[in-house]
């Protein structure tokens, strides 16, 4: 039986551009989604926008891979599943850091929920076959993803509290 690990010991694709991680790319693309200390909220918004476009492009062009990733992950060996979860947490934290820089008034909980909701919109949409033929789907998804992430909350209340 062969291992699902690459020669480097990590899951195939984990930490790669297929998951939206820009650090594995050579050249200027390696700067996508990175904001240094002291950069403005506008810089963070630009980084989120670029990372969102890249994530959506990857998901739209790798639908079968994404479907397998989400439906079969529980079948991975324990070590691979743990590696995958670690990567997911780090990737979420990367987006959360950018969103916190872009919207400093959001609580940590709201940042986390917004990031997870933005991913859910994209991931669920690409698994809905009848939507895949829509012209401009990538642009629509980017707009929705950015709206979920960046739209200011006005007059919201916790519906679970009275």
Shape: globular
Low-confidence stretches: 1-32
Radius of gyration using CA atoms only: 17 Å
Second rung of CATH, namely the architecture: Orthogonal Bundle
Q: How much helix is in the residues?
A: 40-55%
Question: What is the N-to-C order of secondary-structure elements (H for helix, E for strand)?
Answer: HHHHH
Strand content: under 5%
CATH topology: Tetracycline Repressor, domain 2
Structure description:
The chain has 162 residues and is mostly helical. It has one domain (17-150): Orthogonal Bundle (Tetracycline Repressor, domain 2), CATH 1.10.357. Helix content is 55%, strand content 0%. It is built from five helices and no strands. It has helices at residues 41-61, 63-72, 78-102, 108-126, 137-150. Helix 4 (108-126) runs antiparallel to helix 5. Residues 1-32 have low confidence and may be disordered.
Secondary-structure topology with pairs:
Elements: H1 41-61, H2 63-72, H3 78-102, H4 108-126, H5 137-150
Helix pairs in contact: 1-3, 1-5, 3-4, 4-5
Quick rundown:
The protein is mainly alpha-helical and 162 residues long. It has helices spanning 41-61, 63-72, 78-102, 108-126, 137-150.
């Amino acid at each position: 039986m062969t291992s699902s690990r690459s020669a480097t010991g990590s899951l195939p694709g984990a930490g790669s551009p297929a998951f939206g991680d820009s650090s594995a790319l050579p050249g200027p693309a390696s700067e996508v989604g990175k904001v240094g200390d002291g950069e403005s909220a506008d810089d963070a918004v630009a980084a989120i926008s670029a990372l969102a476009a890249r994530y959506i492009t990857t998901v739209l062009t790798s639908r079968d891979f994404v479907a397998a990733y989400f439906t079969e992950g529980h079948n991975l060996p324990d070590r691979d599943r743990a590696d995958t979860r670690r990567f997911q947490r780090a990737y979420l934290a990367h987006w959360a850091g950018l969103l916190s820089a872009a919207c400093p008034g959001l609580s940590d909980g709201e940042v986390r929920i917004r990031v997870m909701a933005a991913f859910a919109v994209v991931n669920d949409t690409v698994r809905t076959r009848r939507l895949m033929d829509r012209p401009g789907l990538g642009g629509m998804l980017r707009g929705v993803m950015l709206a979920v992430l960046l739209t200011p909350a006005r007059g919201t209340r916790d519906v679970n509290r009275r």
